[in-house]
């Protein structure tokens, strides 16, 4: 299995050619033949030029289902775990099931293989709809030309032991927000001794001449429950790490992005 940050400390030769990548924006449940609510588990994998099986963007077992209450809800994505290496061909493999009372009664919800061919990509944001078994699922992803990989770490500086709020990331050429953290979804997670926030996903691909933008929201605990919003941007680097500090509500945060190319060439 390939890891992120593979070349962040490598010697990058002058004239190094960057390769293309894909950012997974959304996996949406368009329709369900069995109605709602439903409890969904299984996997969604993206296979690329490096690895055909191990880059999960959604992975839940039967004891950790995601509850879908209505049409149009999206799966909570937890990947990819490294930048997608797109050399003209990739694929998505969907294998989703519905949990019933007994495991032997569980139903296949969606099962499909979707090819992504570079020559067919006509716009930055791509949509693929799959009607399979008992559901219709839409995959939305962005094509990132000449990309750099950013691996994200967010640390709470001295202060509260957990983070109540929401963190998303996007790129300046594609405004769709990718969810990194939301305490309304999975509760406020207590940070460890290193005070690093456990993110849902931490890797994003960025066009070399665009920016990586973080949006951070926190809600106060007083009666007004006022919301504070802050934005911070990073310029991609060929290698190395970049840090910046930001205050949002009662939180002082350090945002770190480790940059790497994705293919040595």
Automatic annotation (TrEMBL):
Pfam families per UniProt: DUF6598
DUF6598 domain segment(s): 22-257
InterPro entries linked: DUF6598
PANTHER family to which the protein is assigned, alphabetical: OS05G0112700 PROTEIN (PTHR33065:SF163), OS07G0486400 PROTEIN (PTHR33065)
Protein name: DUF6598 domain-containing protein
